[in-house]
Amino acid sequence: MIQNNLPPLFPIASILPPVPRIKIVDVGAMSLGEGTEPYAALMASVPCDLYGFEPVEAELKKLQANARPGHHFLPHFIGDGSRRTFHECNFPMTSSLFEPNTALLAKFNNLEELVRVQKSYPVETRRLDDIPQLKDTDLLKVDVQGAELMVFQGAVSVLETALVLHTEVEFVQIYKDQPLFGDIDVFLRSKGFVLHQLQPAGRAFKPLLANNDVNAMLSQFLWGDAIYVRDFMSFDKLPGPALLKLATIMHTNYRSVDMAASALEAHDRQNKTSLQQTYIARLMGR
Fold it and tell me: Is the pTM of this model over 0.85?
């Protein structure tokens, strides 16, 4: 499950010209508690609009009941527009458009117990490209238990303008026949993104434990969070407002100060500003 618990840096908005509202799209928006979203720091720092998708009815109702102004939550099963089977599990966060790979899960501590199918039923998936409100998405977060590539394949137009992608990836088939990290990486690189950060996670093989913790990883990567950014070699092709948004997202959400500085450098070249110099001076003064 995607998380981001990094402490904040100084508010980058304090040294930038006004940054347009940032549009966040969250596919798999189930809440793990207030402030646990991987973009929580961003929403607390600058004006944002949020469009979230959560197909599990009980979880969707929780999101809608607690929605703040500018936050919209919808029930669609996001994918490539095809008809699929949804497998609803005993822990809602492990439900998927792919069937759990029980034989593999059972080899690790505290996994198979969390991914037990309660019911399966046919659903019609919907492409992000077919939802008009998602035009000009800036940050796309995807956490759909093995169906991430399907989501991206249905979001080619969204990806044309997106700046940052925050996606869960798997390194082994936790779900049967699911695409893995390598498949997603090839697809996203073909759409003009580069891998920026990779945060692996997993469990220990039974019967071993790490620090007597059934949820701790020893050596085998199972899944993780991958953060992709618009190719930095093409920053000069991005308009000035997009570069300001990109710097804001990378600084605030990921503490990626070098990437933020690079985006500001491109903005300076376009607009004859000196934002990078001011930004670096502020970093050095901390």
Answer: yes
